[in-house]
Amino acid sequence: MSNRIMRSLDSGVMSAPRGAAVEAHAGLRRLVGRAVRACRKALPQACALCVAPAGDALVCSACAAALARLRDACPVCALPGEGTSVCGRCLLHPPPFAATVAAFVYAFPVDRLLQQLKYGGRLAFADWAAAELAVAAATALRARGDGEWPDRVIAVPLSATRQRERGFNQAHEIAARVAASVGLPVAHSLLRVEGGVPQAALRWSARAKNVRGAFSCHTNLGGARIALVDDVMTTGATLAAATAALRGAGATRVECWVVARTLPPAAA
What we know:
By secondary structure, the protein is α/β, with parallel strands linked by helices. It has a single domain (3-10, 68-261), classed as Rossmann fold (3-Layer(aba) Sandwich), CATH 3.40.50. The chain is built from 10 helices and 6 strands. It has helices at 3-11, 20-42, 61-66, 88-92, 110-118, 124-142, 160-166, 170-182, 204-211, 237-248, and strands at 99-105, 152-155, 190-192, 215-217, 225-233, 253-261. The strands form 2 sheets. A 4-stranded parallel beta sheet has the order 1-6-5-2, sandwiched between helices. Strands 3-4 form a two-stranded antiparallel sheet. The termini are far apart.
């Protein structure tokens, strides 16, 4: 484990080199973030779930403690199992990604918070989501050897049309904040092909076909180890398709970092 990354994990400071334009944008983002945090401290916050006083947090400590966190899950697909061993399904049919880190089970009220971010444009919830995911990711990273650490973070992209409609990509908003927390650079190597029905509108059985070939990678990723970030993993089809594109571009290891993991109907 490198000293630089350990210092970043302890201090929450990202030190990866960037181009001037990207660094300027990152500096503006940090400035705005500090201003928002200062406003939260100056103005009393009400919990987004119970409206009780929450200090400078978006979710009060009592509600945060009651959220359904993911525990005793398969380290590959993040579905609950017996302890933390790789599940039988992943042993028989390994997905293209090597591991999955998830902070929560996608259930009430976590689903409402993420929906407010994704569909309601409540970008403040990206701070909460990223902070929770960063803790889960840092915990997972500290338990590994250096050879399994990612060297960059990539967000699952939206198509250009969907991004114009929404005005932002929630996965990128989360990824940028998580990357800053764990001291890794953000890369923009993945593109989403236009077209396709939104995954949320499809049955589980139809999702893999819908995203087959949906991503392309325009960068040579030879030898790269990537943390692929999204807000929610449902069937894993979107993340598997994105992983296939990254590995096709030369990435040697891709792991998924998600805020929440949806349980299959039988386990929910």
